[in-house]
Amino acid sequence: MTDEVKKRDSDRLDGAIPESIYGVMAAIAFMLYCSFLITTLIFPVKTQDEVGSTLTVLPAFCGLFVFAGAQLLAIRGRSRAWSHRRNAPLVLSALLTVPLLAAMAAASFDLQASLLLQAAAWALWGLGQAIFFPMIGSLQAEIGHTEENRKLHLASIGGAVMCASVFGALALFAPDPLRSFLPALYFATTLIIFVAIRTQRRIEGDETNEESGLETLAPKFLSPTIVGGTFSVLTCYCIAHFGMRGTLGVATIGCLVGGAVFLATAMTIRRALTNTLIERLYFPITAICFFLVPTLPDFLKFVPSCIALSMFFFYAAFYWSLIIAVGRDRKTASPRHFSASLLAPSVGICIGWGIASAYALAGGNLAHPFVLFFGWIVVYTIVLSIAPYATNTLLEMDLLSPEDARPKPDPIDRSGNSWEQACELIADTYKLSPREREVFGMLAHGRNVKFIKDSLFISENTAKTHKYRIYRKLEVSTHQELLDHVERIEQKLLQQRQER
């Protein structure tokens, strides 16, 4: 029996709450928080009648813009103010969310707010969510550290997304005053559960205070940004075409189907294959649905919209679980790497929402089906064009192809190649990203920039950028110093082998 198992059994005998209970409570908190997000985004504060339903997206766009911007500033500043061991961020997040929830409640009694006041309430909401949303993620990361709990953890994510659709559907049938109070109820309940788990785990002394390595935990910018952009364009179209209640119906069905599909694939298929399925299926299925909408009669447009949104929630469930898995595997509970991971889809949502809002302000009709398809094309093109310039070391790791999903060479197979062992050890020690590992391997074998450029099909400037990032991490200034560094590590490995 291992020390870890003995400690766990000892804790349970001493009256500690079993880890599975924490997992259930964390899943419930996640489920309620998803419901809060759905009901808040789909049912924004009532807009003045003369403005029209299409422009109700503008205040929400302001909130999402602030949400993404606040995350970016926190990451760039390497801020420690959001430490999960302090209660101040929880209180601040709740206070910043109160104006929006209060405005929604007031709107149910026909107390209308101007677009400017709504935008201000959403902006404060964005600040609050930039604080609280990553902390929900860090709570999930603290649950289920053991290998045998991985399937249970994935099941909790998929099940929570499915159950969130039920809570979101309550807004379809609840009377109007209650509907406006539902987001406040979900948010308050989530806070209570979150504080209860944190308090109990602090008593048991299970919290960890390690910081995350942002260079290795941040996701790649491209795919999540496009996914977020297409989701926001689809949501704007649904609001304009189906109205608020119809849009909530589309989101509810999409959330239910997406969570069920994720649950089925996660429980039956290996994670590496799930990565491939998502990356290969999301864009073609979404594109087909966007193509179908203009060609179908009005009573059938609901179907491809539900399918496209279900693909989004399937992607979101997987993406969320993978972020948590990375945080768990790295043994960190810091919320900062969740901020980095959420930045890319947030930026995508802002882009899509901004395009739709600008089109509506110019007098365009978002309900026209061709707007949906061309909006998707525009978002895709914009993101593809800015991604090469926006990507840096912070947003370099591709979570759709995580390092632990790649086959690693068996130490036995390379026992006779001390140079390769030295390269692998250096890459692990200095936490090189997957792309940097490829470039470093070529540099360590004497290859130049031109060879790297041709082998990886990248530009010369990109190859040089990777090269100098590796130099900076290894604290060398020339190619010869890099080779000397590898040689020194190789000599140490050979000496250790002889001593054995």
Automatic annotation (TrEMBL):
Keyword Cell membrane: no
InterPro entries documented for this protein: MFS_trans_sf, Sig_transdc_resp-reg_C-effctor, Tscrpt_reg_LuxR_C, WH-like_DNA-bd_sf
Domain HTH luxR-type, residue spans: 425-490
Gene3D superfamilies: Winged helix-like DNA-binding domain superfamily/Winged helix DNA-binding domain
Protein keywords: DNA-binding, Membrane, Transcription, Transcription regulation, Transmembrane, Transmembrane helix
CDD domains: LuxR_C_like (cd06170)
Signal peptide: none
Membrane-crossing segments per the record: 21-43, 55-75, 87-109, 115-133, 154-174, 180-200, 221-242, 248-269, 281-296, 302-326, 338-360, 366-387
Entry protein name: HTH luxR-type domain-containing protein
Organism this protein belongs to: Raoultibacter timonensis
